[in-house]
Design goal:
Helix content: 55-70%
Strand order of the largest sheet: 1-2
Shape: elongated
Distance between the termini: 16 Å
Oligomer: single chain
Strand content: under 5%
Number of helices: 15
Number of strands: 2
Structural class: mainly alpha
Largest sheet: 2 strands, antiparallel
Radius of gyration: 25 Å
Order of helices and strands: HEEHHHHHHHHHHHHHH
């Protein structure tokens, strides 16, 4: 029952995470759009806020913003914080559930570095804390007054983390952890900067004093950072389902390109919503970044290179196959390898033989006994406890063959 309960647990945590993320990202996009839509009105002094009228769901909304604070404390005040907190908490639980709870399957790649699950978890969690300290330090440094330099420093920090993760984790885990570092920055902005500044402003207002405008400005800057980082984070969180995004030895370069692409797309909408015109060049930059990222992934896929006719001299070295110590994983029976070889390995190989497939689904390799042993838990879930694989039983695996897999798994 444990694999079934674990699978359902992961599904429910992921569901919670996605719902919370939708709420948080939606709020971020909405408030950036709202800020850009504000217009000056006589009731609010110039430069101190504005008003926007909106229509939605059959009704009209009149929304006002005070850059510092209103004259009096309103009776009802809605705080926007739990979308962020619930997204990060559910994401962290999912990270622990999937990557640290199944470290041998998703986190550790012996071809990259042989580490224990505990070591991997400590590196991952420690990187989240270190990442926040670096990012927050940059924002409190003199670079905060020079946005282009600050943006460059933050960008280089992201790429450095992506490169570092790639030296210790599997490709899939490396890209996911890069996204987790950025997501930690985003929630850290809410928890450590935006909310405290808002509380200080409210305390001053209740005391009859005028809040410091710098608090609101600092909170707004961090909120803008969150908005610009949203699209890259979504890419990294979804990347686990698309091996071409993370299986390249140069996936840290793909990370950098995605950060640029996502940032300039948000810049287009933010400027446009503010009435600053259309920055069409941003779409050219984003398209170029994604195209270069695709080329990098193709250069690391032997099948893709072959199908587009690249010569051997243009080929990049493929990712090295995994070698595992036999003591860690019991030998795989020949009968099991026969089943896997005829029903699964045509797709789950370094060079898939299935038409129009250029990389193994989800990066799962089943072409050697070592790989089969490593992904035994995935085989149990996908081909024994459920019949999800092969999809639609396209390779016609027989009940007795599934029984053979079950027998082998039970003996492990």
């Amino acid at each position: 029952m444990y694999p079934i309960l674990h699978e359902w647990g992961g599904f429910l945590i992921r569901w919670t995470h996605v719902v919370a993320a939708i709420a948080w990202i939606g709020a971020s996009f909405y408030f950036m759009h709202l800020d850009a839509s504000l217009r000056a009105i006589p009731a609010i002094p110039a430069g101190k806020g504005g008003e926007a009228w909106e229509v939605h769901g059959g009704g009209f909304y009149q929304v006002r913003k005070y850059l510092v604070a209103p004259d009096r404390m309103p009776e009802h005040l809605i705080w926007h914080k739990w979308q962020s907190y619930s997204t990060w908490l559910s994401g962290f639980f999912l990270l622990c559930w999937v990557y640290y709870g199944q470290a041998d399957l998703y986190l550790i790649d012996p071809a990259v570095r042989v580490i224990t699950p505990m070591t991997g978890a400590l590196i991952g969690i420690g990187a989240l804390a270190l990442g926040w300290l670096i990012y927050d330090g940059l924002n409190r440094s003199p670079l905060a007054n020079r946005p282009p330099l600050l943006a460059t420093a933050v960008f280089l920090t992201v790429v450095a983390f992506a490169f570092g993760f790639q030296q210790v984790f599997s490709g899939r885990a490396a890209m996911l952890h890069t996204g987790a570092v950025i997501a930690t920055w985003m929630t850290g902005n809410v928890f450590f900067v935006i909310m405290p500044n808002q509380r200080k402003a409210i305390a001053e207002l209740v005391a009859g004093r005028v809040p410091n405008p710098a608090w609101g400005k600092q909170a707004k800057n961090r909120s803008s950072h969150n908005n610009y980082l949203t699209l890259p984070v979504l890419f990294f969180m979804l990347s686990g389902h698309y091996p071409l995004a993370w299986s390249s030895p140069y996936s840290w370069m793909i990370v950098g390109l995605v950060v640029i692409a996502g940032g300039v797309v948000r810049h287009f909408f933010n400027v446009r919503n503010a009435g600053g015109g259309d920055r069409w060049w941003t779409w050219g930059v984003a398209t170029a970044c994604v195209a270069i990222a695709a080329v990098i992934s193709i250069a690391s896929s032997p099948v893709a290179r072959e199908r587009i006719g690249w010569t051997a001299s243009a080929e990049a070295a493929p990712v090295q196959p995994v070698s595992l110590a036999s003591a860690a994983h019991p030998p795989v029976d020949e009968s099991v390898m026969n089943v896997i070889g005829t029903r699964c390995a045509m797709c789950h190989a370094a060079e898939p033989q299935w038409p129009d497939m250029v990389s193994p689904p989800k990066g799962v390799l089943l072409d050697t006994p070592e790989h089969v042993a490593r992904f035994a838990s995935a085989i149990r879930m996908q081909a024994v406890l459920t019949h999800a694989m092969p999809p639609n039983n396209i390779t016609d695996i027989q009940p007795e063959e599934r029984a053979e897999l079950a027998r082998w798994l039970a003996a492990r």
